[in-house]
Design a protein that fits this description.
homodimer, alpha/beta, Rossmann fold, six-stranded mixed sheet, 11 helices, 6 strands, globular
């Protein structure tokens, strides 16, 4: 079989990808949300994100304002942290935290018979700064955020709630959408560290472009 | 709406997830390949991986042998590196390399009017050790691996070829499947850093369990 490669300049690969995505969208999408939706589609080559992403009222303006004011991002995996454009975030004063591998988080989880993801959210809630949460893996992290918000122990600037999987994933996302908090959620089972990083970066690139 | 959480012990969440995946498989799958297929489905909550994953002859035995003999893993993103269980790999003597952020790779890419992914494969080809490549993002990395193999400049133990996207992604995977090299490839557009890490870990856990 003869395989024909498309000739695209290195700097143009991303633009060309977004053109293809644009041309294959199943229907029109909101222009303010489009960069987020298209970057989620891009990171998984999965057009399901066109319809499963849910946005709270005015979330983009709120999220961009938070980033401009120096909000930091807390993640539930090292992969999300690795995927976020930390140089862009730093321009606004924010940094990325992931507490999953911390010894005190491991001990807290063991002691409380809980998950590290849950304990890492407790640790994050102690940070005295504006926070965005980018959750790409653990529904238990999202459930703990819900509890902390309900108990008035945490007031996040934004929750990117896109854990992936089969146990309590669907439910954890529905819980977050019942909170009075700005959110971007991938309804259903789908999501992932890549999607959490992609949505974070889409917001950062809106401020750059 | 009342949201009911499933009560699952932290240590049992992964097992329960795999039970659910097993129960929803669209058809029977090969028992030796099952741990790889199921972990790919798990990482993206996407059953497309049941049918898009392609395996070269006897690839599992060859891959496990390579890991046991201390093969290292080269990735095309920091996210894949972050996602691989490095402690498990280290037990067998291997480590994970990602050259994407290296200054010499950036310079080489600029000089050659190429991508950093491509240059990072050239750098990896200089390593004098058995190598597994886990490519979750860049088709240009996969295309460069194809060229290096065709030129007898590289003989990988295994290529995990699961870049994601829209420009030359489909083609790059077909090229690898034409090489005389052990491969695990996600045919089509889908894949990602999460999938590359999941397949790597599935192999590592076969040796652990």
């Amino acid at each position: 079989m003869k395989i024909e490669l498309e000739q695209v300049e290195p700097a143009e690969i991303e633009n060309r990808s977004f053109e293809i995505i644009e041309s294959e969208l199943p229907h029109e999408i909101d222009s303010q949300l489009a960069p987020i939706i298209k970057r989620a589609v891009h990171t998984a080559a999965d057009f399901d994100y066109v319809d499963n992403l849910c946005f709270s009222d005015d979330v983009v303006n709120k999220a961009l304002e938070a980033i401009k004011n120096g909000a930091s991002i807390v993640t539930d995996t090292q992969m999300v942290k690795a995927g976020i454009n930390k140089a862009e975030l730093k321009k606004h004063g924010g940094e990325v935290f992931c507490f999953m591998s911390d010894d005190d988080v491991k001990e807290m989880a063991k002691k409380n018979h809980s998950t590290r993801a849950r304990s890492s959210m407790d640790k994050a809630a102690q940070l005295d700064k504006p926070l965005i949460f980018a959750i790409g893996n653990a529904p238990t992290a999202l459930i703990r955020l819900y509890e902390l918000i309900q108990n008035n122990e945490l007031k996040p600037e934004l929750i990117i709630g896109v854990p992936v999987g089969f146990v309590n994933v669907v439910q954890s996302k529905e819980l977050i959408m019942q909170c009075d908090v700005p959110y971007i959620v991938a309804r259903g089972r789908k999501g992932g560290s890549n999607v959490a990083a992609a949505i974070s970066n889409a917001l950062l690139y809106m401020l750059r472009d």
